[in-house]
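Researcher: Sequence recovery benchmark, item below. Answer with residues only.
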């Protein structure tokens, strides 16, 4: 089986995709629960804004797939739970994939699965575990034609900024993105680099594999919209935003505004107008 059918459900005719990530409860971190305490309501709010995909865990996917009707976002199933997100790293680090992840994804009618490829300072064992996770998922994904989204994530030392802070050094992002491609990723979900105008280099090193850019922590409306416009201009195939959507005071309007940026190429000014006034 091939991934073609599922990729066509994820991406527009122009090859663009907006995936809203609401899988943060998987990581046992209190600060991630803001605005998603009521998952059923959170999912329904995002569904009404009609992004291309919603990223959920095994235990929460039902809130999307129980919604009736043909026209709803595709499910991206998060497959790994990790413990690297707190202000202080624990003594033992892990990133563990769920058993039979690809079979669960097929049963749930997912369009893709998502898995981390973590690179933390002085934590080679964790990186090794992630490499093995990707390799195992790739073998199973090939068997079922499941799209494999790999999330290369380069992180700063915890003592620098106090937990789960990404490293925007393009010279660290590029080789990790390339490793994800070499391991068989069908889609890359990667961080922006410090200098957005250099992001085309990340796109290039991905060697034709679509790159969706992570949103990271909460930012101002102006910052997130302007950053998205610039990233799309650098050749990104779309975005995967979570907290900048679901923790926004108007998550549905933010989704609609970003959908216009991703799929229609509207300006930052137009997107902010949609966000602030609700028009298109």
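Model:
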């Amino acid at each position: 089986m091939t991934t073609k059918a599922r990729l066509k459900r994820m991406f527009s005719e122009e090859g663009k995709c907006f995936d809203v990530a609401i899988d943060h409860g998987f990581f046992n971190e209190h600060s991630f629960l803001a605005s998603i305490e009521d998952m059923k309501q959170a999912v329904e709010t995002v569904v009404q804004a009609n992004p291309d995909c919603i990223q959920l865990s095994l235990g929460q996917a039902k809130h999307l797939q129980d919604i009736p009707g043909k026209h709803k976002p595709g499910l991206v199933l998060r497959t790994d739970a990790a413990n690297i997100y707190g202000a202080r790293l624990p003594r033992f680090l892990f990133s563990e994939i769920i058993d039979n992840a690809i079979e669960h994804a097929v049963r749930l009618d997912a369009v893709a699965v998502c898995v981390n490829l973590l690179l933390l300072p002085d934590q080679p064992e964790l990186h090794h575990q992630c490499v093995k996770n990707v390799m195992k998922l790739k073998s199973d994904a090939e068997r079922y034609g499941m799209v494999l989204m790999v999330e290369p994530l380069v992180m700063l030392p915890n003592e620098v900024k106090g937990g789960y802070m990404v490293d925007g050094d393009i010279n660290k992002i590029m080789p990790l993105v390339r490793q994800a491609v070499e391991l068989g990723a069908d889609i890359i979900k990667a961080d922006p680099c410090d200098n957005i105008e250099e992001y085309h280099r990340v796109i290039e090193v991905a060697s034709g594999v679509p790159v969706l850019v992570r949103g990271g922590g909460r930012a101002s409306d102006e910052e997130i919209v302007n950053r998205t416009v610039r990233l799309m201009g650098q050749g990104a195939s779309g975005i995967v935003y979570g907290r900048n959507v679901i923790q926004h005071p108007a998550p549905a309007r933010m989704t609609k505004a970003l959908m216009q940026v991703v799929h229609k190429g509207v300006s930052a000014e137009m997107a902010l107008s949609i966000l602030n006034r609700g028009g298109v």
